């Protein structure tokens, strides 16, 4: 029996999508680690058992810095997860590899700048501009997917 061929791995667009998606997922893991480190540094735990292990129930509390990290992570989930769907489907539409790479790169850089602006509390409108720029390729991919699938509606 012959092993199945991995045609998607021969698709330059899909490989580019995979590269940028993996960077974004690793970035999300880094934000989660940062959140945990800020919790430990600020002694602000979300669960009473964690507070008890780290000094007492008085540390079962919220902290503005921890909440900022959590909001950055939540914003990533609200934006990166849809990108993963859109990018995967868009990769199947046989777009130009150069154009697709630009879509993926813009989204990835926008999300990285957004996270840096969020965590470092950079001056407005840095974060909102990064957010908006990252949305452009998503809207473009969504529109192209809709146009390609409209005949099947």
TrEMBL record:
Family matches, as Gene3D superfamilies: Membrane associated eicosanoid/glutathione metabolism-like domain
Xref: InterPro entries: MAPEG-like_dom_sf, Membr-assoc_MAPEG, MGST1-like
A cellular component annotation (GO) from this entry: perinuclear region of cytoplasm
SUPFAM superfamilies linked to this entry: MAPEG domain-like
Location(s) in or outside the cell: Cytoplasm, Perinuclear region; Membrane
Enzyme Commission numbers on file: 2.5.1.18, 5.3.99.3
Alphabetically ordered keywords of this record: Cytoplasm, Fatty acid biosynthesis, Fatty acid metabolism, Isomerase, Lipid biosynthesis, Lipid metabolism, Membrane, Oxidoreductase, Prostaglandin biosynthesis, Prostaglandin metabolism, Transferase, Transmembrane, Transmembrane helix
Residue stretches spanning the membrane: 13-34, 99-120, 129-147
Catalytic activity: 2-glyceryl-prostaglandin H2 = 2-glyceryl-prostaglandin E2; (5S)-hydroperoxy-(6E,8Z,11Z,14Z)-eicosatetraenoate + 2 glutathione = (5S)-hydroxy-(6E,8Z,11Z,14Z)-eicosatetraenoate + glutathione disulfide + H2O; prostaglandin H2 = prostaglandin E2; prostaglandin G2 = (15S)-15-hydroperoxy-prostaglandin E2
GO biological process: prostaglandin biosynthetic process
Cofactor section: glutathione
Molecular function, one GO term: oxidoreductase activity
Keyword Transmembrane helix tagged: yes
Pathway(s) this gene product operates in, as recorded in its UniProt entry: Lipid metabolism; prostaglandin biosynthesis
Keyword Cytoplasm: yes
Membrane disposition: Multi-pass membrane protein
Family of the protein in this entry: Belongs to the MAPEG family.
Function, as annotated: Terminal enzyme of the cyclooxygenase (COX)-2-mediated prostaglandin E2 (PGE2) biosynthetic pathway. Catalyzes the glutathione-dependent oxidoreduction of prostaglandin endoperoxide H2 (PGH2) to prostaglandin E2 (PGE2) in response to inflammatory stimuli. Plays a key role in inflammation response, fever and pain. Also catalyzes the oxidoreduction of endocannabinoids into prostaglandin glycerol esters and PGG2 into 15-hydroperoxy-PGE2.
Protein name per its UniProtKB record: Prostaglandin E synthase
Organism of origin: Brachypteracias leptosomus (short-legged ground-roller)
Record lineage: Eukaryota, Metazoa, Chordata, Craniata, Vertebrata
């Amino acid at each position: 029996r012959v092993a199945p061929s991995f045609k998607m791995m021969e698709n330059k667009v899909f490989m580019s999508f995979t590269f940028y998606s993996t960077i974004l997922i690793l970035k999300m893991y880094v934000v989660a680690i940062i959140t945990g480190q800020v919790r430990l540094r600020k002694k602000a735990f979300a669960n009473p058992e964690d507070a008890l292990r780290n000094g007492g129930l008085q540390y079962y509390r919220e902290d503005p810095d921890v909440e900022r990290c959590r909001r950055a992570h939540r914003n990533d989930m609200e934006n990166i997860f849809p990108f993963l769907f859109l990018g995967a489907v868009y990769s199947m539409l046989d777009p130009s590899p150069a154009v697709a790479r630009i879509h993926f790169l813009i989204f990835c850089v926008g999300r990285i700048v957004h996270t840096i602006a969020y965590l470092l509390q950079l001056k407005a409108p840095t974060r909102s501009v990064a957010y908006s720029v990252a949305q452009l390729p998503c809207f473009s991919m969504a529109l192209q997917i809709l146009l390609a699938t409209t005949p099947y509606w």
